[in-house]
Design goal:
Strand content: 25-35%
Number of strands: 3
Oligomer: single chain
Helix content: 25-40%
Structural class: alpha+beta
Pfam family, one: PcfJ
Number of helices: 2
Distance between the termini: 26 Å
Strand order of the largest sheet: 1-2-3
InterPro entries: PcfJ
Length: 75
Amino acid sequence: MTHKHHCVGGYSSKEDSLILSATIDGKRIETVEVSISKLKVIQCRGLCNKNSKHHSQILSLVNNNMPFIEQRLAA
């Protein structure tokens, strides 16, 4: 599902991308694109491609959990 103020719908066909959605109380705050081959965040943006007030916490959470993401991808 694409949101009219976010371009994440165009990433579904990228083979090297893992798309994650950061939500609070069921509301999408930011969308995160992770490179599968490099295991690093390529993009992390909220509505209208802007950073939310939670941006740094979201990046830290994803980066700190990259070893778990790698394990899941290998499974």
